[in-house]
Amino acid sequence: MALTARAPAIAGARALRRARRGFGRVHAPRTDRAGIVVLSALGAYVASGLAWWCATRPPTSLIGSLHTTAGRNWDAASWNPGWAWVVGAAVLVAGIAVARALGPLTASAERAFWLLSTPVDRAAMLRPGVVAVFAAGAGAGAAGGRLAAFAGTVEQWLPLTACGAVIGLGIAALALLVQARVLPTRTLPAVQILTAALGGAVAAVCATGTVVPVFANWPPAAVLAVPALVMCCAALLRCGRITAAELNERAAIAAAARTSLVGLDPTLVVGVHDAAAWKRVAARRSRALPPGRTRALVRADLLRNLRRPSPFAATAVAVCATWALGTTTQPVVAGWVQLSAVYAATLVFSTGLRDLASKPDLRAMLGDADRALYRPLMVVPACAAAAVTAMTAAATGWSPSVSAIVAAGACVAVYRLRTRPATAYDGLVLETAVGQVPVDLIRQWMRGPDGLVAAGLLLALIL
Question: Within 13 Å of residue 225, how many CA atoms lie on the same side as its CB?
Fold first, then answer.
């Protein structure tokens, strides 16, 4: 009431933000202030430590430990620097996906109702959030540029890092312009598809042994900075066109991400993201299911995956990554890479099993035992696992035993993960000298990954 009573006397957005901060300082509990200080100091410590590690490591520290050529010592001079382009494209595609999922600008329902609905300049109210999005995009781009320099063993990593920061800033501004309806909605998907295609083409060229040069100097960063700054200025000027509906829609995903991070349960944010994705799919023509419960479940799961192209795109990326890494690593590492790719493909095609396992009311309506309902929904994921195993078998020398372990281990791990009960937080907790150890929580988390670990150990014994 104290804040709302002062609202009519406030003249502009800056004064409104100042009044809100003052109200929070006066009425916030002291325990919350201490927690904010501790968390801020911890975040600054971790960020500075990571920055120091990235700045002081030699360019071959990452590739020398991960990509060791089988049968002989790895030579840094023989490594293709073109892999820096591949890693940079992968980071850019992931960044665009995150920007599309989060908005990138969001506002809670309380902030949208009490602040953004007031008769003040909406753009002025949103500009601090826009600047925060710019900072996040530049930071993520800088991290991606440094990772690309590691992947390509580039000696002059600072210009490449600066180029990544500029590209991240430009992508953040581009996403804001799309959200403000200055640019069409298909702009970000088009950039994402083009980047993925270029990254795949460069990866194919690098896999053939052709050296792709990397221009690690300052002129490219300076050239890219011009359009990035222009888009940033346009986003600052046009951010007032972002509607409250768009801010609220993305706020649900952001809130679910925070809840999943606190509860250490990613199923919450995945569920909210899938619901938003199905809203974008919109309506489709209904189709009659075949008679019989088993055939109907298999057909429904197949239609579910056919109506969304994202599982096929993720599977294609996993297959290409296995082809790229399988020829440059030790046999054991190649087997683990193949196992990870098959597991990822099986996981993305098993969303139907996840939804059924999380809804006991739906299982009761279908009128059969749980395992009898789960097995038909593993047909499509098992087919995906078999297809990816066959396409990536060259990475492990076409070994039937390795292929069988990879496919079976991935299917078992996905089945156990998708049918895992809801996380319970009231289990056994051990008090040790270094703090509390949630034994029961760790046991719940291991349902699913334990099958993957067992398959990895079998591969280590065979290869």
Answer: 11
Q: What is the Cα–Cα distance from 294 to 300, expressed in whole angstroms?
A: 10
| Residue 463, helix vs strand vs coil | coil
- Side chain identity at residue 325, one-letter code: L
For residues 151, 403, 383 and 272, what is the CA-based torsion angle, rounded to 10 degrees? -40
Beta bridge partners of residue 432, listed in sequence order: 435
Q: Give per-residue burial for 183-196: e unless 16+ CB within 10 Å, then b.
A: beeeebeebbeebb
Alpha helix stretches (DSSP H) within 239-350: 244-263, 267-281, 293-306, 310-326, 331-348
- 420-431 core/surface letters (b: 16 or more CB in 10 A; e: else): beeeeeeeeeee
Q: State the DSSP string of 403-460.
A: HHHHHHHHHHHHHHHHTPPPP-SSS--EEETTEEE-HHHHHHHTTTHHHHHHHHHHHH
Nearest Cα to 402, choosing from 330, 460, 450, 345? 460
Q: Which residue do the tokens 């944010």 mark?
A: 269
Return d(Cα 389, Cα 338) in angstroms, integer. 7
Higher-scoring residue by pLDDT: 107, 401: 401
Helix (H) or strand (E) holding 400: helix 400-418
The residue type of 314 is A
Mean pLDDT is highest, among 30-34, 259-263, 395-399, 417-421, for 417-421
pLDDT tens for each residue of 298-309: 998 998 888 888
> C-alpha angle with apex 115: 109 to 117, nearest 5 degrees?
85
Amino acid at 20: R
Q: What is the pTM (predicted TM-score) of this model?
A: 0.77
What's the CA gap between 50 and 67, in Å, rounded? 22
In the structure, what pLDDT confidence band is assigned to residue 106 with cuts at 50, 70 and 90? Answer: confident
What is the predicted pLDDT for the residue at 235? Answer: 92
User: Are residues 86 and 324 in contact, defined by beta-carbon separation less than 8 angstroms?
Assistant: yes
Distances (CA, A) of 155 to 36, 219, 220: 39, 17, 17
